[in-house]
Amino acid sequence: MSDSSELGEKVPYQIVVLVVLGIMIGSVVMVLHMAVNQDIKVDGFQADLLMKRLFYSSDCFAYEDYRAHIGVINMSNFNEERLNSCLITDNLVYAKIDSKEISNDLLAYKDQLNFCKLKDNCFFERKYVLVNGEGKILDLGVIMSE
């Protein structure tokens, strides 16, 4: 008799343990599902990398003799042909020093500039970089559309 009474006492306890364990497992699965399915916005990082490539890489605008001089712009490389060859991208890129402005598509860039601020699927970033040695400002802009 004592065995059946002990079994009767353990059953409610085991049911409570199973319910609590089920809630814990369900919570863990729900948190993992939310973490895996979360959208991560990387537009800002992509735009920053594109812009840094322009003035850090000798393939783009950086001056190079035996090494690339970061932030020193080789003005003979500052042209649309060099821009298009150094950045293979569908994003709109704009650069300006003094009155010389270049872009991979200048008309589309200027058209999209105002509309990008109103659209949800568009990202715009602009930076101003001091060009070493010349005291000039490099104005960079990138428009990224999904």
Structure description:
- This protein is an alpha+beta fold.
- It has 2 domains: 31 residues; 103 residues.
- Helices cover 46% and strands 27% of the residues.
- The strands form 2 sheets. Strands 4-3-6-5 form a 4-stranded antiparallel β-sheet, with helices on both faces. It has a two-stranded antiparallel ribbon with strand order 1-2.
- Strand 5 and strand 6 form a beta hairpin.
How many strand segments?
6
Q: What gyration radius follows from the Cα positions, in whole Å?
A: 29 Å
Number of H- or I-type helical stretches: 4
What coarse outline follows from CA principal-axis ratios? elongated
Hey, roughly how much beta strand do the residues contain?
25-35%
Largest sheet: 4 strands, antiparallel
N/C terminus separation? 73 Å
Secondary-structure element pattern, one letter each: HHEEHEEHEE
Low-pLDDT residue spans: none
Widest β-sheet, arrangement of strands: 4-3-6-5
Mean model confidence by pLDDT: 82
Helix content: 40-55%
Quickly give the structural class.
alpha+beta
Total of domains: 2
Task: List strands and helices in order, with pairings.
Elements: H1 2-36, H2 43-56, E1 62-64, E2 68-73, H3 80-86, E3 92-97, E4 100-103, H4 106-116, E5 122-131, E6 136-145
